[in-house]
Amino acid sequence: MAEIGTDILKAKNLLEEGELVAIPTETVYGLAGNALNASAVAKIFTVKGRPQFDPLIVHVPNVNAVHEYVTDIPEKAYALAQKFWPGPLTLLLEKKSIMPDLVTAGLETVGIRCPDHPLTQDLLKILSFPLAAPSANPFGYVSPTTPQHVNDQLGNKIKYILDGGKCEVGIESTIVGMEDGEPVVYRMGGLSIEDIEAVMGKVRIQTHSSSNPRSPGQLESHYAPAKKVFVGKIEELLLEYPAHHVGLLTFQNDFNTPNQYILSPSGTLEEAAQNLFEALRAFDKMDVDVVFAELVPDVGIGRAINDRLKRAAATADRW
User: Fold this and answer.
1) Domain at 21, CATH number
2) CA angle 283, 288, 292 (to 5 degrees)
3) How large is the average pLDDT for residues 253-277?
4) For the chain, counts of helices (H) and of strands (E)
5) pLDDT, mean over the chain
6) Which of 183, 191, 211, 311 has the fewest Cβ atoms nearer than 10 Å?
7) How far apart (Å, rounded) are the C-alpha atoms in residues 54 and 61?
């Protein structure tokens, strides 16, 4: 298994050698490699089992560093970065040739963000290159929010996991780009649509792609545990599938069953987001056949939670 620790110099040395390191962010743990080293980037795809048509997100320490890797930052995008970086925001921008095509899946744009975690900030500041870092889990599975989640899935494939504790936000960053001068959200995430629109005005939401996505996190089926997930009103699902051993995933409702995970006993969407991926992983260790999940209030970060639940359920067969 991988070593877990807080030694950023050890992480730096491994990354400079072209190795991969799992890093903490406020959203989820990332599987990081030198974004300018095509060999290191290729390792990311191999370790995750990620198709190379799915582009990666590049992590930098601050907005000033972005200018080295993109041709331009539109005024509205720059205003968003000034307001929410470091934080759970990824900007999709026109890339310079220094950024390998493997990172961007051959696209002319690259997703860049500045993560809000002190350990990873310290690491990025002492590196001479940015980090390409998708979530540190096998492709399509639930994203990791603790070092142990990473070790459970990828510990035999990487050497070091930088331990930043449990992720505070718990779901991936929101991805925003510009088309014809207008803002487009390609993935809902830890930054709410309401917060984005307060800076940029009305945005268009274009979050799914069956193949050849324009940004990371656009595939319709994703974030799925090993158990089948069905989303809807739990009372109705229990009537529809009475013969199955069921796990229940609720926002705040308590059905008084042992195979249940309540996302937020206090009833806050922020707590629900922080617990979502841990909950989906927990069901894989329970003696259940299927998971019935209810949607949370569809406002703020709740939109991103519901997006993840629906995509986790996208592979479930209606039998």
Assistant:
1) 3.90.870.10
2) 70
3) 95
4) 11, 15
5) 92
6) 211
7) 23
